[in-house]
Sequence to fold (557 residues):
Amino acid sequence: MVCTADDLSAWKDFPKGLKVLLLDEDSNSAAELKSKLEAMDYIVYTFCDENEALLAVSSRPESFHVAIVEVSIDNNNGSFKFLETAKDLPTIMTSNIHCISTMMKCIALGAVEFLRKPLSEEKLRNIWQHVVHKAFSAAGKDISEPLKPVKESLVSMLHLQLESGEPKNEGLDKTEDASVIHEIDPEPSTASDKYSAPSTPQLEQGGRFLADGDCQDLTNCSTEKESCEQDGESKSVETTSDNTIAEVTAPVGQPLGPREATVKEEADLVDGTKGESTMYSQTQNGVNNKDSDAVAANPDIVSGIHSSCPNKANRKKMKVDWTPELHKKFVQAVDQLGIDQAIPSRILELMKVEGLTRHNVASHLQKYRMHRRHILPKEDDRRWPQRDHMQRSCYPHKPIMAFPPRYSNHVVPVGPPYPMWGPPPHPSSIQMWGSHSYPPWQPTESWHWMPYPGVHADAWGCPVMPPPLGYCSTFNQNGSTFHCSGTVDNRSGMPQNSVEHQPAEEVVDKVVKEAISKPWLPLPLGLKPPSTDSVLAELSRQGISTIPPHINGRNLT
DNA sequence: CCCTCAATAT
DNA sequence: GATATTGAGG
Fold:
């Protein structure tokens, strides 16, 4: 029968006494196998006939923890039948024949492993792992609060094995299953590795994937393992890992309340980057805002940064990764402020990202500027070799950032202003900020700021360089911080922005026309929404004096 | 104190 | 090599 986690934790010298059902038509082979198994203190029940074996399994399932079943050429049906019948019993298939399809079939039918004969001690020694694995995955499924029992069982098992009444400081709580196994394993033989190392990683992983939520614990643990390893190497480990352990050890044995949160925090503790990226990727989904109104802070996005650890102390400084989302906010803030007013503190304010520090922003800003300075001039020169009068400021941006509608992008005189900082040509392939270790971003929404010729892109991808005096800030739907010193009074409702000479007036016209004809689309950059005043003026000029209330409510200044 | 730049670390 | 953090200088 399936061994439960509880059984395991109560099991004195596991895996001694493990009950093995052995089914092999070849009695010699069976005897040989049996002796080997018994040498490891396994209890072996040998069957040479699969019917008998099946009978035994069904009549007294509690008598077996694991089965080893020989697959022979002539009688593989029997073996398969066994597999199908004894589903609850972790069954290892073994055979002389080395036929991939047979192996696959066995696995597909539920075999936990396929071992090629001859079965060395090394191969046999660790078959108990399947029992453990099954026990824990079963625990995960059956119990409403799946993970806790598993954890507890693991802990108690460790205690047993380590024979230390005290919780070892190893952060038991955090120990991943793999390492648990190693600790228990009498001899983590290296030799066995090349053979089969029963309970191969694949198996366990498979288990995790299958059980998914149920086995999250394990998954997380494995994550943590990696983290720990990293920490073990990193120089600043001492503090970090110690803290982690200290904090983490305490909750052992206590009811783990909000599991997920806890785990995340822990992961976060151990390794900021990882936790962070994880959380980002999680939050991102919900965050993918409809472009413009996103100036508003989204607190969620922050959670990844490091705020997740309210509890105290010397947390190592988290590495902020500038996800597209974050960067987008950043760019928005910069645009809103104007490049010359974009200083870290204000950007930080505008971004409203909790946990983000001024330093972080400053650093990012530094990079941002660098990119602009180095990349833009090239682009610019390339495009307007002789239009040097444009660069009234040190920033060679053209005053017109508006893109024509996507179908007419061929007339666009400007390319992506931020080649480097823009997205890669194909949104799906990106991962600009993320290091290789990041889970891939959702290919779609992450790059709103990308300067493809669509309307949205302009907003994020093509921040406008404010003219030196009286600039119009980037279009801002909220209008909250919108200060436009230029043309509030313009009667036409169209921006007549003062630019004396423009590279391509037709383009401007086109853009404006487009903007007018499709008022539901966000305005291209460089165009500002008409002020309330101008709208009212225009309306009255056209003889319309009554204004629906909601228009008034929506002020633009 | 804040910003920027440069050095340093990952 | 790129990116983020740390530190020094203004």
